[in-house]
Amino acid sequence: MDSLSYDDERLYNSTLTEKAYRALEEDIVTLRIPPGTIVSEAILSRRLGVGRTPVREALQRLAREWLVVIMPRRGIVVAEIDPIRQLRLLEARREIERFLARSAARRATQVQRMQFREIAAGMDEAALSADDIAFMRLDRAFNLLMLDSAGNEFAASAMSLMNGLSRRFWYAHYRQVADLPLCSRLHATIARAVADADQDAAGRGSDALVEYIRAFARATID
Hints:
By secondary structure, the chain is mostly helical. It has helices spanning 6-29, 41-48, 52-64, 83-107, 110-129, 132-150, 153-177, 180-195, 199-221, and strands at 38-39, 68-71, 75-78.
């Protein structure tokens, strides 16, 4: 590290923070670190093989996304899963996600449209194989690409706070009440509509997906 310039060191730390964030986000969302687990920077640093500063920054980001709770002088705990909160989240998500889907269909670049087609094909494969981890990784890629291609930083900021909670809630309950192939196909429909620059189809596809997720959330309560 002594040989790095100030800017190089910042870039190096930023890269490690992203690595730590992505690993921890996936572990929390896929319940490898279950709700209610108490964690520490030191333990996570050893687990991930990175320093404590990137882990601390990753945890701060996860706290902003409601996936962990940082309690000063007491520790860090993975947030519990709350079905009622999930229903409130969906009230906002329906409107924002429709806007993002329509905006992406209008503004996506040709490279992004090609990436949406690749995601759609991957979702079709996940539907056939019922591969939950493949689906979760594709879903994350789909969400990030949607935020990037919609070209609205305010909607993207709001939606980025919901994605992790939504994915974790689905993963926690999908074996009991969900239909992974159907969920994969709904994502593929939106991805193809965006790739085809069809704003109306993208909006309808988004509404269909959120309605499926709303019914799924209600079923977990019932």
